[in-house]
Design brief:
There is one protein chain. The chain is an alpha+beta fold and 373 residues long. The chain has two domains: 3-142, Immunoglobulins (Immunoglobulin-like, Sandwich); 151-372, no CATH class. The protein is built from eight helices and ten strands. It has helices spanning 137-142, 151-173, 178-203, 218-235, 240-265, 293-314, 322-338, 351-372; strands at 17-19, 33-41, 50-60, 72-82, 89-95, 102-113, 121-133, 135-136, 279-282, 286-290. The longest helix has 26 residues, at 178-203. It starts with 16 loop residues before the first strand and ends with a helix.
């Protein structure tokens, strides 16, 4: 059992059925409550892929008055495609609108696979039962095996801190006033976060609006932050081209660290895979072996950060903004190449191809201008 599988759960070692629990007792009294229930299973060895259905039946134990519909539930959690050699899998289902308290839940699961016969082959998975407590609904929604609450904001704060330090060092190499650069950077960070949320909402209009840290787009952050650096740098009397060149390594460092937080938080997860190079991780609903796309993007951003840092440090007077353009374009190219490996559908049918083509042209132009200059 991978270590990450046991984060947020016991890995199904004590029981195949686990309750999502809050790691912070201080929030246990907050409402509303919900149930987060994880069923652990090993896919059948028969040829697949399989469709898994888990029937969950719950009954509240601490009932002092006549029972109501809020004291019982029966629901089915489904998983559309599970391959035989995908390894230990965790399926987490949430039940809302029920009374808070202590619950007893049973799970009965089957895996079906279409065969050449009229009826599909059915494999019965082990049944399980467990007793546990409901928890704060936000915790039940966000936590699952493989998901560490607070990991994403913690890594973002760390990434921003490292970025500001690196930017300050490079700003001095470019002859810029560090105090003025810091002011612009802090404003750009705040406005960039607002832009990230706004960009996400514009590209995901069909989703329910959530006032939370989830649903942030790096594209929106970069667009708004870049505009802030250009306008703020001009207002502060800074050489904008050199300000941008000193900033791009910092942006890339922040992204590299932030993507590690995505892995631990269960967001931007890769597609399931049976490859030996897969990493067990979760998308907050299904924990299984996946393409480690967050780690791949973090590694690419870190590589670009090292390259741009060296160039910004050794040639502080040569590019005047071209390094920023090349660094951002290079990162956009990497993101677009990795998008098919993420387990999220694209919001536009051709947006990836158009963005990739524009980024490649921009990168080639920046490199050509640097060489000719």
């Amino acid at each position: 059992m991978p270590r990450l599988a046991r984060v947020g759960g016991a890995g199904g070692r004590a029981s195949a059925l686990e309750f999502v629990a809050s790691p912070f007792p201080v929030v246990d009294g907050l409402g509303p409550h919900a149930l987060g229930i994880t069923y652990w299973f090993d896919p059948p060895a028969t040829s697949g892929p399989h469709q898994v259905a888990v029937r969950l039946t719950g009954r509240r134990l601490d009932v002092d008055e006549p029972r109501t519909p809020a004291d019982d539930f029966a629901t089915v959690a489904r998983l559309a495609e599970v391959r035989p050699d995908s390894g230990r899998t965790a399926l987490t289902h949430r039940v809302v609108g029920k009374a808070a308290g202590r619950w007893h839940v049973t799970a009965d699961a089957v895996a079906t696979v279409k065969s050449g016969r009229d009826r599909p082959d059915v494999v019965r998975l082990p049944s399980a039962e467990a007793a546990g407590e409901s928890t704060f609904a936000t915790v039940a929604t966000m936590r699952a095996p493989g998901v560490l609450l607070g990991a994403w904001p913690a890594m973002v704060v760390l990434g921003v801190t490292l970025a500001l330090i690196l930017q300050s060092v490079l700003a001095r190499a470019h002859g810029l006033a560090s105090a003025n650069v810091l002011v612009v950077a802090l404003v750009a960070s705040v406005l960039g976060a607002i832009g990230a949320k706004g960009y996400y909402r514009l590209t995901h209009m069909k989703e329910r609006t959530r006032l939370s840290l989830s649903g942030l787009s790096v594209q929106g952050f970069v667009i708004v932050a870049t505009a802030t650096f250009i306008i703020g740098g001009a207002i502060q009397g800074l050489a904008v081209g050199h300000l941008l060149d000193a900033t791009v390594p910092a942006l890339l460092v922040g992204q590299a660290v932030g993507r590690l937080g995505c892995l631990l938080a269960g967001c931007c997860a890769g597609v399931p895979t049976t490859s030996r190079w897969g990493v067990w991780s979760s998308d907050r609903r299904v924990g299984t072996r996946r393409v480690p796309v967050q780690l791949m993007e973090a590694a690419a951003a870190a590589t670009l950060a090292v390259a741009t840092t060296v160039l910004a440090w050794r040639t502080p007077t040569s590019s005047g903004g071209l390094l920023f353009v090349a660094g951002v374009a290079g990162y956009v190219v990497v993101r677009q190449l990795l998008f098919p490996l993420r387990g999220l559908p694209r919001s536009t049918p051709h947006g990836r191809q158009v963005t990739l083509a524009l980024a490649l042209v921009t990168l080639a132009g920046a490199l050509a201008a640097t060489l000719l200059g």
